[in-house]
Known about the structure:
The chain is of the alpha+beta class. The protein has helices at residues 7-15, 36-46, 62-71; strands at residues 25-28, 51-54.
Amino acid sequence: xxxxxxxxxxxxxxxxxxxxxxxxxxxxxxxxxxxxxxxxxxxxxxxxxxxxxxxxxxxxxxxxxxxxxxxxxxxxx
Length: 77
């Protein structure tokens, strides 16, 4: 939420990790008042194989947004 200033660097850091296990980045963007949502969409377009977006139509709040993200996890870890 409201991470426009740090999201690109965070995603780049995660994407640079080398591992033998496939992984994805789930961005559950909770209607931030800044440009976080637009940035998340842009990052997902640049890395569609890596980033999955969850974009609720209204602000869910931290707990509900976390549960949404957690329920969307497809991997074992």
